[in-house]
Hints:
Helix content: 25-40%
Mean pLDDT: 77
Strand content: 15-25%
Strand order of the largest sheet: 2-5-1-6
Structural class: alpha+beta
Oligomer: single chain
Distance between the termini: 8 Å
Low-confidence stretches: 41-57, 69-83
Shape: globular
Order of helices and strands: EHEEHEHHEHE
Number of strands: 6
Amino acid sequence: xxxxxxxxxxxxxxxxxxxxxxxxxxxxxxxxxxxxxxxxxxxxxxxxxxxxxxxxxxxxxxxxxxxxxxxxxxxxxxxxxxxxxxxxxxxxxxxxxxxxxxxxxxxxxxxxxxxxxxxxxxxxxxxxxxxxxxxxxxxxxx
Length: 142
């Protein structure tokens, strides 16, 4: 049986959720909040990926598309995003299965927050109810 309860908060304000947990006699130290700022992706423009003059030697055939060819067209390479592996690891620490981590990352990138609570076997159902009653979306137990 999973003991980590997770949910998605639209605004990251968990004060009322903490009050409900406290009113139920549950400790607040097992709660974690991962906000959208924690999901900042490493972004690098295609110009930042490599020095545009990197492989420009004087001869022909030394150009590398996307590396030596100046600014890409609108349909070209543009900004590239790389998955924040530390965030994936942090979500993995919440026992979120690998096949669901991307859903949580998507929620974070959309400006929502992930709330998690490390419950005990005798309190896990109560925490799930508090999360649902507190307005969290997609409440799950892992």
